[in-house]
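One such shown below:

_____
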Amino acid sequence: MQNKFKYIFYVLITILLIGCSKEPKPISYGEDECEFCKMLVMDKRYGSEMVTDKGKIYFFDSIECLVGYLENQKMTKADYHSLWVSNYSDPGNIIDAEKAIYLKNDSLRSPMGLNVLAVENEAQLGPILQEFGGTQLKFKDLSELVREM
């Protein structure tokens, strides 16, 4: 009987540890709802997510919804564990939002109209910038753009 309780105890601890993971999760496009605008996250080039310190994940249908949520909730870096954005050059795969390189160009339409995309590095940015032009940005630049929307 004691072995049974030990087993149950270990299973519960394992579930708790796994359930509190602070790792991002793949976005379920067409199923996950944007925490900010409540639309379904549809476009694999623009989705984003926030992981809280407790491991809760919030999904967003665009970079501007993620930034808008942070602004609206008056969140600082101390209020979350990590932020992730879709890699425009590798749709469906997410990258660290604070390390990403951003490009603003109105001919590349994002779901909510700010028209900002993210890539992981300069090698991915180069061809997009050469073809479409635009303004290169960093994550810290996005708050001002969202406030101006």
